[in-house]
Amino acid sequence: MSIINYFYIFAADMKKIIIAGIGPGSREDITPAVMEAVREADVVVGYKYYFQFVEPYLKPGCECVDTGMKKERERAEQAFALAEQEKTVVVISSGDAGIYGMAPLIYEMKQARQSDIEIVTLPGISAFQKAASLLGAPIGHDMCIISLSDLMTPWEVIERRIKAASEGDFVTAIYNPKSHGRYWQLYRLVELFLQVRSVETPVGYVRQAGRDDEEIKITTLGAFDPEDIDMFTVILIGNSQTYISEGKMITPRGYYREEKENDVKPGQQIMMESFRTIASELKRQDYPLDHKWALLHAIHTTADFDMEDILYTDSLAVETLYNKVKNGTLTTIITDVTMVTSGIRKGALQRLGIEAKCYLSDPRVAEMAATQGITRTQAGIRLAVEEHPDALFAFGNAPTALMELCDLIRKGKAHPAGIIAAPVGFVHVRESKHMVKPFKDIPKIIVEGRKGGSNLAATLCNAILTFDDAEQLKPGRDL
User: Fold this and answer.
1) CA dist., res. 28 & res. 33, Å (int)
2) What are phi and psi of 297, to 5 degrees?
3) Running DSSP on this structure, what letter comes out for residue 306?
4) At 39, is the secondary structure helix, strand, or coil?
């Protein structure tokens, strides 16, 4: 502490209350300024539990004034009365006195009393900071603090704040998580977070941070047990980027991401930012990776968040089809119309050695359609099945073509590697999609209901071809 600041705080001719945060409970976490204030105090005012942390440093004759638990107003009034006697009064709070501590109350009381007593606030290390240091680096990005105590804040207000924190993807510190009378609030917080956060979201909590019986635990939001928590515990919930490494929670700031993205083209950068935005606005964050990858492509292409409700994928359908591409068993994509073929990225097809074909312009199609009394898209699928019965079939326009494929599968003439069912319209569209679902052994991606389109079918093909970029959320490699 500088000589000027020391004189300012302890000058004898000034009536003063010093509000000091003593940290979470160990000598090492008390700041030098707070230590000096405690040593020079004539009176220390605080909750008796916290006296044990400062008593070794008090000067002889220093008085400790305790007003008991939940007697904050009486404590503040005592401090003002003693300061009026021109005593050096230090009011202590655990952690930082300005965070759920005595500082706001004393400033409010000074105003209410129209007091001329000078107020000085000395910061302390807050419990969430101490807990964060023990857990690793969980608060490396935007964060907020929420107290679950509803003694002076209505629960409706607290719940709104919980929703805002979870939806805003903030790293969130939880104070006052539980007490003998408040047993259900933490369960409700977890329920609200799980509505928008992944079950794999890291959660760390520290009991009695900085004290002899300190306990440190790291788990996930899905495995978190509120019964393991008491009133002496601080909880830290990570954001969507937080991860666990070597037993520590880490929330990256983004330095390595920037380094990795130096070679990213502008178009791809825009697509990556779009995907991040979409991912943050999903109603759920716990989708399996391959379904989420297809969903992000579908929403990016349509700007339609209804896709979250109507995009159906078989379990591991995207991953399974990608693996077939990688091992060489899937080499052809058949589309119902040329617009779907046009939307499949040429760079991905070339990179992976895949051919995308539409038979609609084949001269045999018109003749077959005329002689057999079927649509041209149906005829195109019949020809395609003759030549490529094990292709991936993608439909973005014609329900009759999808129905034709279903019929050929049932007759044993087609054995598709997979089906993308996204025809659009009003006649036979829903029915054609229902017809696909009974084929349990064929990986399927279906846009339920009337919605669909060539753009959707194409982007779902692209999702399959780029599934190896899903984990890094790095779309647009082949733009």
Assistant:
1) 13
2) -65, -45
3) T
4) helix
What CA–CA distance (Å, rounded) separates 310 from 448? Answer: 5
Q: Report CA dihedral (197, 202, 207, 212) to the nearest 10 degrees.
A: -170
How many angstroms from the chain centroid is the CA of residue 171?
8
Amino acid occupying residue 368: M
- The amino acid present at 431, given as its one-letter code, is E
Q: In which region does residue 41 sit, left (phi positive, over 0), alpha (psi from -120 to 50) or beta (all else)?
A: beta
Contact 38, 56 (CB under 8 A): no
With b for 16 or more beta-carbon neighbours within 10 A and e for fewer, the 63-101 pattern comes to ebbbbeeeebeebbbbbbebbeeebbbbbbbbbbbbbbb
Q: Edge-to-edge, what's the strand order for the sheet holding 392-395?
A: 311-313, 444-447, 418-421, 392-395, 332-335, 355-358
Burial of 184 (0-12, 13-18, 19+ CB in 10 A): exposed
pLDDT digits (tens, 9 = 90+) for 53-96: 899 999 999 999 987 777 899 999 999 999 999 999 999 999 99
The amino acid sitting at 16 is K
Name the amino acid, one letter, at 275.
F
- Is 124 within 8 Å of 228 (Cβ atoms)? no
Give the integer Cα–Cα distance in Å for 137 and 71.
35
- Pairing status of strand 89-93 against strand 16-21: parallel
pTM of the predicted model as reported, rounded to 2 decimal places: 0.62
Output phi, psi for 360, to 5 deg. Answer: -60, -35
β-bridge partners, 202 = 220
At 448, the pLDDT band (50, 70, 90 cuts) reads very high
- Please name which of 63, 60, 73, 69 lies closest in space to residue 94, comparing C-alpha atoms: 69
Show Cβ contacts of residue 186 under 8 Å, excluding neighbours closer than 6 positions.
Answer: 148, 174, 177, 178, 226, 229
Q: Give the per-residue pLDDT at 189.
A: 97
Q: How far apart are CA 36 and CA 3, in angstroms?
A: 12
Output the DSSP codes for 175-196: ES---SS--SHHHHHHHHHHTT
- Contact 299/476 with Cβ under 8 angstroms? no
Q: Which of 343, 347, 355, 349 is nearest to 297 (CA)?
A: 343
* Active-site annotation, residues: 300
Within 282-375, where are the H helices? 289-302, 307-310, 317-326, 338-343, 346-352, 363-372
pLDDT of 463-475, one tens digit each? 999 999 998 888 8
